[in-house]
Amino acid sequence: MINQLNNDLSLKTDRKEELKNKYAELNAKECDKTELHKTLYATSAIYHNIVKDALFQVNCLPVSAAMAGIYTMVDNTRGVWKAPANVSIANVVSPAVNLANADQEDLNVPVNGKAINAIRSFVGEGIMVWGARTLDGNSLDWRYINVRRTMIMLEESVKNATRAYVFELNVANTWVNIKSMISNFLNGIWKRGGLAGSSPEDAYNVHVGLGETMTPEDILEGIMRVTVLVAVARPAEFIEITFQQQMQKS
């Protein structure tokens, strides 16, 4: 029995030594591969280009996930009415295609209106999202992403808020409450910069009531009509600055 145990221990010791030697051998080979890679990368232009192209193919990712993150960040920090543009993308080495101003002109303002928002590299600023247009670029109403998204947010917010008044009495008191609720909501958006206008009256209007948005037939049919007018702020996509020299006055 003792001899058997000694034999087993001896076999285990031999096995450990064997594994240790194999690990050392593999480690040495791995070091040799690393040194070979460094040498070829530094001396061989062909090998350098192959590695560079392989890394590019592996690390080149679609921008959809990054843009979703930028939308969320801008919404949380500025609001949905801020265009998700002129924002840097973190942890990006370079765009897959480098574009200049001349290259972007046809993408940003195409004839068919289906704009492509470029992601560009700027010296000293990094990789930036440089465009905020929709695929309906020829429309004055829905040309910009933030305008469309702001309207969606306003529509959904008002619709969800007025759901509490379903089956309430379709009378003046209810109309006043609804108008006050929507006006307070829009006033908050205006104060935060989401609506254009120097005063609340210029930024939004809410209409509801008999003879204003409804007829007696609407009330008999159980319909309450509310009309909301808003002036959504638009981005300054192009900034033109004019310099002139004037004569010395004194």
UniProtKB/TrEMBL annotation:
Keyword terms of this UniProt record: Coiled coil
Coiled coil: 2-29
Tail sheath protein C-terminal domain location: 141-245
Record carries keyword Transport: no
Transmembrane segments: none
UniProt xrefs under InterPro entries: Tail_sheath_C, Tail_sheath_structural
Gene3D superfamilies per the UniProt record, alphabetical: 3.40.50.11780
One of the Pfam families matching this protein, by short name: Phage_sheath_1C
Family listed: Belongs to the myoviridae tail sheath protein family.
Protein name: Tail sheath protein C-terminal domain-containing protein
Originating species: bioreactor metagenome
Lineage: unclassified sequences, metagenomes, ecological metagenomes
